[in-house]
## 1
Amino acid sequence: RDRELGVLMGLFEEAVAEPMARAVLVTGVAGIGKSRVRYELLRRIKAREEPVEIWIGRGDPLHTGSPFGMIAPALRRAAGILDGEPVEVRRQKLRARVMRNASAEPTRTVMFLGELVGVPFPDDDSVELRAARQDALLMSDQVRRAFEHFLAIETAAQPVVIVLEDLHWGDLPTTKLIESALRALPDRPWFVAAFARPEIQEMFPLLWKDRGVHDLRLDELTKRGSEKLVRQVLGDRANDALVARLVEQAGGNAFYLEELIRAVAEGKGDAMPETVLAVVQGRLERLEVDARRVLRAASVYGAQFWRGGVAKLLGGEARDSSVRAWLDELVERELIAMAPGSRFTDEDEYLFRHAIVREAAYAMLTDSDRKLGHRLAGEWLQYAGETEAMVLAEHYERGGAPVRAALWFGPAVDQALAAGDFRAAAQRAERGVACGASGETLGLLRRAQGEAHKWCGEFVEAERYSLQAMELLLRGSAPWFAAAGEAAEACGKLGDLDQLATIARALTEAPDLEGELAARVTATATCAFQLYNHGKYQLASEMVDQIDRVAAEVHDPRILARIYQTRSSRAMFSGDSGAYVVSEQAAALAFEQAGDLRYACMQHGHVGYAYLEIGAYAEAERWLRKALDGGLRMGLQNVVATAKHNLGRALQHQGKLDEAAAIETEAVEAFAAQGDRRLESASRTYLASILAMRGELSVAEELVRQALKTVQAASRPALLADLASMLLKQGRHHEALIAAREAHDLLEMLGGVEEGESQIRLMVAEALRASGDAEGAREAIRRARERVLARATKITDAEWRTSFLTNLPENARTLALATELLDA
């Protein structure tokens, strides 16, 4: 493997010399020699005799998908942390490890690394930690920031190598954490080497492609290399016929060839099995009965196991000395290896020398033994201090203990949400339900499913599961409010207004339970925003008033952010553009102060939209690109789509029409895929406006007419005004007047709209004028100007007020036409 090792060392040397972050994915079938290449790579790196920090994470078939299941154990080993130690000892070890290269104690980094590696710190003096523990998604963002900061500290002192072995049994959060760090720290000396079977391409498609990952495939050993290995091991016994037979049968598979050579060396080479798994099973079957029992018991735990755990499956402490002896013997026979450290205190940890050995041993278990083994393994791990809820759920589920499994699927779902693995969270919740979860446990699983589907942009599923959770959970409790908030947002996205009104009444009537104020405010604010979006202003205002009554009691920045959001909604729909910008900015700042990067990202998009409403298009573009970048980095598809939607408008009014049309088209497609009918219609309208500005009036008109077929009442007036504008440009004055008057009548009936009020009033005047009704046009433009100026007086910032009057095309045109028709 000199060629492959040369490539790997070259990438490592490049990462150190530049310096720069480099990642390589080494793939090959089972037994091809990945583990040996990994061993030789690390041996050569260590032989350089220059400081280097090495973190090794290992995949395990029983830990597959466990959030941070590869990187967290690597960091625990780096800090010398053992499960089962007193929590204060573990805290001291973690703090000391972070401080080893830090100039000052990074308290926040230590605390959130503690959440990553299972060493919790008290949150008495930390608003950020307290807030994150109430929001799984916020925790995901904070953990990511902490990891990146720790990696920055370490790479400032020496190069860092992260090895991920058997990544095909890994987890999405670990890969996302690495990807985020590759993006955040591109100019630091660190190197990622991941080793996996080819199925990694199906599990994690396009893994790190955007970060320039180098793909290296391990091909079969060459014929010459295989022959050399056989002759070196067997010596004089390796005649030409035997060498040829072994080389041909192994087919370049290094592990298979090694096992064939071993069989010949032991005098068992006369009738060798035709597959690598069969040859390993044959080797195991030749072991003593007790040795086989120990291996089978060990295989239940996965790739790594512990002496006490094996003894638990074979009869308890009474068998401990016998188990110890056989484990020592199996180490001597190179079937297993002693791990350099152990996760659990006072426990010897072992590893299977190769995954195929573990698979062969596991396959030798009967179904009944396998089921019993997993149940006992779950009990032993739980007693030993296992912190991975998914591992315990997996053992109990396989062990035929569904009630126990359902209890552990709940925290397993929360861990997946905290790691940003939304798809895994939804799937695990469904597995918990299938295990017979009921009552509150079932309600919590359904609530988590609703949240997971929301972040995936799947609002039909989000609504269904969140409503089910509301029926199962205690009314007025924090989980109930969380489910109600998710249900309200999903209903708003889907345009299910009857259900949205039902949720609003339920929120208003919910009992006041002690300590649930934050959850109540959050859910009420979410529901009020959706009501405003759909023209239910009276009910929305009542909910905002309800929030205002408790605002004085609130000091938590996350709750304050929700209060600012509801006030911004009220300002937007009442036409107070200045208050709208101020409230949106205050909400963004509050989310940032709480460390809630996910909602801060979403709020950045809201601030960008607020700047659109005062005509500050360059500033709007800056905020919207900030939201877009954050949404892409954190996988927030709904944030990405909304940011693109509003960015199209910001680009349009800066004259960047082609770029605007392209990004608005992407928004249309994203909203359609998510089932968000309201914003799909809105993005089609924005796209139509862009195309109309490019002179493509017929296409633009058709887009608006399509949107009018599905748009909700609150958004219909703005669409009709846009249609009137397009008809006027085509000289179809009578049709334009009909559309403009319908838009105006709807505006008066609703009492306000999210956007487009000035355009609606202007189009009435323009259409009347074009139709020859001069007096009607003068009266319409007079009212339009009065309304524009009245809204402008609410904007206290002089620069914003000027922008509102001169940069918004509809406002500037309203004032110009009023001067032409009235002042002259």
Note: The longest strand covers residues 21-27.
## 2
Amino acid sequence: MKPAMNGTVPSDVDLALLDAAYVRKPMNVGMTLVVTLTIGLLLWSVLATHTLLAGCAALLASSLWGHLECRAYRRAVLGPSNLRRWQGLFALQSAAAGLAWSVAPVLTMATQPDGDSLALFVGILLGVSAVAMNSMAGQRAGMFAFLIGTLAPTSLIAGLADAPAQRLAALVLASALIALMVVGHQSHLALRRLIETGMRLQANLDASHDAVVGMDDSGRITDWNRRAAELFGWTAPEAIGRMLDTTIVPERMREAHRQGLARYLATGVQRVMHRRIELPALHRDGREFVVEIVLSPLGSGPARSFTAFLTDISERKAAQERLALFRRVFDASTQMISIVDGEGYAVYQNRAHQAGLGYRDEEIIGQHFSLTVAPEALAAFRAEIGVAMRNGLSWTGQLLLQRKDGSRFIASKHVGFIKDEVGRVQYAFDIFYDFSPELARREELAAAKEIAERASMAKSEFLSSMSHELRTPMNAILGFAQILQYDGSLQARQLDQVQEILRAGRHLLELVNEVLDLAKIESGHLQLALEPVALAAVVDDCMQLMQALAAPRQIELHTQLPPHAELHADRTRVKQILLNLLSNAIKYNRDGGSVRLSAEPARGKRWRISITDTGCGLSAQQIEQLFQPFNRLGAEHGSIEGTGIGLTITRRLTELMGGSVGVQSTLGKGSTFWLELPSLSQPTLATAQPLAAPAMTVAPLPCHSVLCIDDNPVNLRLLVQLLTLRPQIQVLTAASPARGLELASAQRPSLILLDIHMPEMDGYAVLAALRADPDLQSTPVVAVSASAMPQDIERGRAAGFNDYLTKPLDLGNFLHVVDRWLTR
């Protein structure tokens, strides 16, 4: 075919036929030269010299023409546009070749018409015509032109002669011409059909998705379709004729390939024939990939051949490996995983699913998902899944499932959907786990939490009750003792005894307060209200309260604060911390000493507050034990009273507000306690403003009326006695809420002091009634209660009390609050 000559693949049957004719033409030219030489030698003595030379010259000229034409064809590019031209050239050269064969017979009949030479030339012409008919069957026009050029002139000359032998020869040649043309026509049609069939077969092979490779029994490639060229990188002309093992078989497997082929040829065992085999294959560039091979034998004679159909399955193998990886991952998962198709029928379960539900693969694959759902939960689950599918969402929730053995459990599920291009659900995947242990754990945790909350509530109620019950008698003890302290008729010995009562009562109150505070902190019930706190205002309040403690020992109090220092903390707890540190600095100071409170910016948006005293100082060993609860570092053997838990509470409160506390001390010189508390803004150090420690003053008051409402006669009498220290005040008393409301409505007092815990109506109900009266809406109402827990104070302020005083009352603070609201 033409690809063997010029690399051009014919596009149709005519191109293929012409290419095949030109492939045989060099052979025809060669045969003509051989026959010419043979005839010339054999007939040199028989024919006339000029006849022999003329015939040989014509044949040589025809052969030269054919040779030049073949060379021109090899250099040309055959196509539909020049097909007719090359067919015409072929036919013209064929006619010339036929005429060249008729030159010697025609000249011989014209000059030597004897029977022997006539018979010789008739035999030669018929033989040459038969060979040419077979050789040029692909080109019908060229074949007919050759036959006519060869037989027609001789038949015509012989027919014009008078001799019977010549006429017989003419008849034979004419009959042979007709017969050869008929047979040649049929040969042409048969060859055309054969080529058409071959081209259709080749087209089918080239259109195949598989690579089709033919080989003979030696392993040499005989066929190679287009897909094989694409798959292995070798074109058909390059591959055909090569050994299969050195072309597509990796080097490490070539010996096994040769042995397998030899074993098959020797034994005829066909266990690999017509079976799909996966083997590695080699691309021309050295790259290896996996192919699937189906090998089919062709024929069973001694010269057998085979056709191999090869498919690149690299992507399929990669997909299988990925699928196997996913399977291993799913099987390694402790969660149960199943996949169902769009109709809800199971197509996969992992090992955890099999172990959890008890169904083997063959028992659950192909079954509907409802097999594992408890019947009573199925309808609701279908409805929820349907809503999720319609909205394009996944579904997450709990569902009651049923195992193969009938046992049930609650599963925590996540169901997702995989849809096709048009939005139909193809698959759904279900990932879940047994939620029953978690439910049991949660129920157990909820029960434990409920028990803890009840215990915490009981503890809070106990603390609140203890606080209230202890403060109520302490209020009477300290209150009347403070009144006696201001009684001028007492003798010195009696006044000293009153001082002892006050000292012991205050110590007991301090102990009760600090123990309750520590209990609240340890139990986590301490509530903090973080807000901006002006440091100067808090320090001012503290200094006023500490002045009475420092004055008898002539201890000077000094402050040096930036004017706009502001903390982000709980105001009440900051005041508690400062009072604790200031009281310690005074108690453990020397007579005539000093206490200095200062503040400066610290790193990280903090203020550092320092309290420096001139006491005896602390050793390093004492500092290590300083913040331990109930550890007074030996001071319990001295005359200074204390509980040993004040500093512990100070540290815990500071840390709860996001701060820190520490101490620096030198024996014999004094100590500096410092605490750092956060600020909302970056602190800046402005000019410090020294604040003088104010003394407690008594401001003259205009005449006012104060209504005291308390169901406890002792507390009520104490309030009256305390208010007698303000002669300008008219005191009104009510032992019941109803009587208090009557007096308030009738007298319209300037200030109302109201107890919280009272029968019939508590203080909150009385406050609501007072606020509902238009004439009393603006009257300040101060709560006076033994309920001193932070939540009690917060509740009182939230309810609308103007202020909240806790029992036992401090005389100075009590009078300060009364004066403040009466002057306001």
Note: The longest strand covers residues 408-419.
## 3
Amino acid sequence: MSLKRFFSRAKWDEERARELAAYLETETTENIARGMSPNAARDTARRKLGNMTQIREEIYHMNSLGFLETLWQDVRYAFRTLRKSPAFTWFSIAVLALGIAAATTVFSLANVIMLMPLPYRDAGRLAVIYEDVTSLGFPQNTPAPGNYAAWKAQNKSFEDMAAIRSLSFSLIGEGNPQQLGGIGATANLFSVLGVEPILGRPFTADEDKPGGPRVVLLSDELWRLRFGADIGTVGRQINLNGANYTVIGVMPPRFPFPTTDTDLWVPIQLRKEDLENRGSHYLNVVGRLRPGVSVNQANADLAVIARRLSIQFPDSNSIVGAFCVPIRLDASGTFRTTVLVLLGSVGFLLLLACANIANLMLARAAGRRRELALRLALGASRLRIIRQLLTESLALSLAGGAVGLLLSLWGYQLVSRFIPSTFFVPGNTGVDVRVLIFAIGVSVLTGLIFGLLPSLRLSRTDLQSALKQGGERGEVGGSSRTRRVLVVSEVALSLMLLLGASLMLESFMKLRALDPGFRTNHVLRLRTTLAKLRYPDITHRVAFYDSVLTRVTRLPGVVSAGYTSYLPLTMFGGGQGFIIDGDPPPLPDQVQEALSRSVTLDYFRTIGLKLVSGRVFDSRDSAGSQRVAVVNQAMVKRYFSGRNPLGMHIKLGDFSENVPWITIVGVVSDMLEMGLNAPPRPEMCFPYTQEDAFPPRDLAVLTTGEPMRWAETIEKEIWAVDPQQPISRVQPMDALLETSLGPWKLQAQLLCGFAALALLLASIGIYAVMSYTVAQRTQEIGLRMALGAEPSSVLRLVLGGGLKLVALGLMIGLAAAFALSRTLEHLLFSVRAQDLSTFAGSAAVLAIVAALACWIPARRATKVDPIVALRYE
């Protein structure tokens, strides 16, 4: 059969009708000519032709696609049926839309983190390589250049390795001065990653040699925003840190290595002495595995090299291991676990929504028993009834899925800001083919889940009882028992979600309430990284800091200001080895290291660090005076073994280095600068006039009010000192703290939202079942009251039945939650996964909500008029 005939069946039927009529007329005429009467002639012609209606139906069905024809009938009937119950229809669509929106939003995150192709050639063969210094608290340490060189030369698992380091650049002479985040990269970085510039070319080996030409690759965003996407930019010279660099190319949009907010790349130009340095750990290393080599094989290879280096260089490498991580796994970090937990949570939420709607569909079943029984009596098969009911369920779920997909676009925009910047997010819409397929698949699956059980129950309708007058008052194939099972399931699933959300919320609240050890209120931070070519020595830099601080602290509303190498929560490294005068040289596996920073005199006061003993820096600590240091309590506890550190001397580096001894003059309180969930690290601070290894770059300003009010004025004061000095990272310290809390906040907010929705769905499901039960037992209740039953006894009867279901659901939910709570253990902070008070509190909240949902129908049952109830059908 042709599609043309299928779509023109009505016209084809009319033509066949005319042909049959013409044949009948011709045959009648011939019979009359044979001598028959007109009536006999027509009757004979009709007997010869047969049943014209049946012939037309057979021809019509010959031109039909049977399954599609009946499916279209089912779809139209489903929409008519749903239109007759607008309250049920819109409520079901709303519930499904919320559940599918939550699932699609979380899947959009998972898609970016775990599924979306990374913009590298054959990204599955890329791995990031780290040092393992677990004994010092660095299980994933940035490699030293000497170790990188050894790995690259001695490995048998990688085609090639490349290294990068973070740099900072001041762009001058192209409009306002601008601070840029840059990367120094080995020339082979882009060939290892398999990425080419969209304009120009990558670095050459000669450009990566010490003293080689100054060249730069720009990010697409910098090229467009700063240079107007001018193709002529390639080949131009730009001023970076006071030196001229030639632009040789532009990288693809939002190129994510190492992060999507990198502005430019320059050759790293490692010197021979750099490649022999195993004491400074500042590189990031990426390698491309050989074809057929697994990550486990590569790790075994790196372990062999690390052991060889520990024997060859015991002073620096005795406790240093090496391992690699697939680049996607490295980029996702702990966020991957968060997404997996959220996916599990929305799975529970969808099951809860399905149970809720299945309950409502079973409640609707009584009103449709006679209709379905009549269809069965007229010859409809049980399979056809099931298909019809599943079509209604799928219509609901697809409508809910369409609305949910639209809601997920909004939801993704809310949560996408928490996606690590190591991922490429094109367009940042959260929707691609995988997300669309997921939304459609989830919609169909939920429709089948909540529709199958009611469909099977309804298709078993007892024809005799259903067709009797009042038969609709009975139950549908055991649906009462089924609804109770669904209620128990809803309570159990709701409790599991509520417990997970409670644990995460309690953890987040404890983290937020934690004293970070530094002041965040009324503090403004700005970054002014000084270019070495423009500020070649410590004298020039000190003059800049002094001039800026003098001008800023004179501003009305400014309490104090101080410079530091890096503010807390802005850098997660910067360690330096040291030795203590009078102590024996540390063993190779007992390397002493602490975070190091240079600070100006008022920094401690501005940031709110408390002096524990001794003194902080003052005007006595000049460039020509005895070198001094202030250490924190964590350093004293770890390295001084209960001794008073005041007056003791330390030396940076090791005994063999000819550097001056430094006197410890003060001890300050600890701060959580490596993250709020990370313990304080040993730290030593030096006066900005004496130590230039980590020159100050972050300015903290303590104000009397909202700090951003002074931002523009402070920027003008800095530019008054140096009009070409770029300023970046202008924000309140509060915002910095909120950023560090971001992933915890996301988990807590989403899980609490899921739990609130679960509570709502569970209460609606319990209420619906109890209301239906009361309606079913109206005659029984009326009879009891007519025989003298008190309203209180009726209340206990109805309420008790509902609370039994709730209690059973709570017991099952508590047992399941206790078994699954360990999956959240590593995501919690200062909270036990099996915290009994949290379990009891969550169960109590759910029990109260469920009891209220039971009490309302039970209370209504006590108001039944016995006379009306006895007449009730």
Note: The first helix runs from residue 3 to 7.
## 4
Amino acid sequence: MTVARPKKSLRSAFLALAIAAPLLAACDSVEERVAAHYDRGQELAEAGESAKAIVEYRNAISLQSNHVPSRLAIAALLEEAGNLGEAVRHYQIAAENDLENVRSRVRLSQYMLVTRNIDRALEFSEQAYALDPEDPDVLAVRSATAYQLQDKEFALELARKAVAAEPDHAAANVVLITERVEAGELDEALSMTDSVIAVHDEDLSLHLLRLRLLELTDQQELALEQLITITEDFPDLGSAKQALARRFTQLGELEKAEEQLREYAEVAEDQTAAKLAIAQFLMRTQGMDAGVAELRRLAEEEENGWPYTRALASLFYARDRADDARALLQEVAQGEGATANEARVILARFALQEGDKEGARVLIDTVLAADTANADALTMRGALEIDADEYGKAIETLRNALAQNATDSRTQRLLGRAYLLNGNEALAADQFANATRNSDYAPDVAQEYVQFLIRRGRIDGAEAVLSEAVRRSPTNRTLLTALAQIRLQQKDWVGAETVANQLRELEGGGTVAEQVLAASLSGQEKYDESSDILRSLVADDETRNQAMSGLINTLLADGKPDEARAFLNDVLAEDPGNVQARLLQASIEQREGNADLARELVERVNADFPNQAAPYVYLARTELRARNVDKAYEIARAGVDATGALNLRLIVAGIDEQRGDVDSAIEQYQAVFDARPDSMLAANNLASMLSMHKADDPEALKRAQTIALRLRSSDVPEMQDTFGWTLYLNGDYRGALQSLKPAAEKLSNNPIVLYHYGMTLKALGREEEAREVLDRSAALADDTFPYPDGLEQALAELPEAPVAEPAAEGGGTTDQ
């Protein structure tokens, strides 16, 4: 008999089913699941459910990353949504995984054309053309690429072939239309555009092309109608609404213009900026009250009214209503959080502009007490610390600010200045370079970096920075002029002429361009051509004085002093009071070896025009060359009193220093330093005088040490001596030695430098070396030596130098 099997329990059956379920599911292949997701995506896409369709396509890709149909489908949907970057990524993957896929290569080449990456466009269009040379889309994109590469004959051949296969092909027709435009056949181009639009009315680029053609053919009414059509058919195109607003404004239809701006504000990506633009429009067209009313309304009605309050405060401040501006900001500043801090930062900025440093400091401290990482407040604190000569603190503060915003060019410029003043030129250079790059070579930022490089003799680097800045701001006269000057200095005559041509294209740049061109021609010894240009400039009253010295120098370089004299005589016959012409007369005689006549001419100018600095400078230097120090001092002192000129102050200070009039010398050097804090010469001279003659005054010594920090990286021996001596006075003998030793080696006959070096050696316990150096200092010292007592005491404290033993009879020595 058979044995019956025991029945399984219901629980066992369910357990078996649960265990087997994954195995059963695995029977559906990966390919089938990919296909299911793709098909579902297609259904959703056709139903207009793009977001859900993308999810299905992504599911397919997650199972099979090289599924090209899903890649192409998702790329198309992303393209429609405006996410071109992500769409291109999917097209690239599709092209890599399907070497014969034409569609991906067509779309990639089209994208590369739009982004001006012509080399990549050519690569993809050639691949597509090799795969299917008859496809109209392939022909069109290959044609467009060829046209961009100026292979116009081949481009037109391909475009005509595409149109023959598909007469209304938009892209191919655009190539043919572009050729007609360049040929000047605008009416034909417009007719062709109308024909294509009739079939492709949804193509925005064709409508924009038609608008441009209507403008070129001066059909302004039709152009306006076309622009209105574009705004109606493409309501999300904000730039069209802006363009229409501008057109209505030009026509004086201000209400319609305002309407367009308000419509644009509803679709703009940055609605705040768009609404601020409405306020600006109202202020421009209806007056300040209208703009103020709009900003007040926005500040009250918008969910975030702060941007409009901030704009209103800035407007008030710019229009000399500082009290109103502060009242708005102070109300906000009473609160808490980021907005209150931003209001305090703006109030601090106002305070700095008004010279209220203490008020600014209080506001900044308040901000940082609430937000220690507030970059704006940290940057302003750093600026205040630089102003207070607290360079070390400023560096730490500004580095903290950059930690919050690593690419802020304003902070980087300040940090560069702090490093420079603290004597670290390498780190200063890095920050100036970073600031220039991060500001996108903004003219003022680039100029500061250029001046830094020029002062350190790095002319090639300065030219490179200026060239890039000019490339990005090709209409900036200041940058172009600076670039021209550098190229003239480098004797790059062709490069200077190139800049001159650029200047000539700018309004008001013609005069500078002609001067640059004249200098370039003179440098090439084309004196006649240079003179012709300069004579034309001199003939113009507005440019006469600018061009006159150039003309005289050119005539002298050409060996024509008599012609130069005759020219100046003609100028003075017409304008006897022309100071520059009279000084140029003197310069001619000086260069021709007629020193007495030159001096006589300058004395006459000085007598007739006592408020002009140049005659004083010339006469004082003449007396100094003749060793008439007292007369030179008298002239320079009178010049300082009459003009305050810095070069005259330097002459006075130098003579004061020689005479031992320390306080007067310091006063003059301080005035120069205050006017030119970036001058290394002024910094050195002031720090040197303070450290040498005021070392017993703690405040003066501290000032000297602070100023001398900027000399740290200098290899000029006088500056090395100044910096090293301040370190000595501060007790840093090893640091002092590093600067004083090379200074003493280069200035080995200067008793003051030797004294500084010897005293440092003595402090370090190197007594034998100190004795030798200080003995040399004593031998060279004269009545003007500032340390007679210190030198005598130091020598008394050092052991006597060992007496050399007499040489053995017979002379010389023998090796043992």
Note: The mean pLDDT is 86.
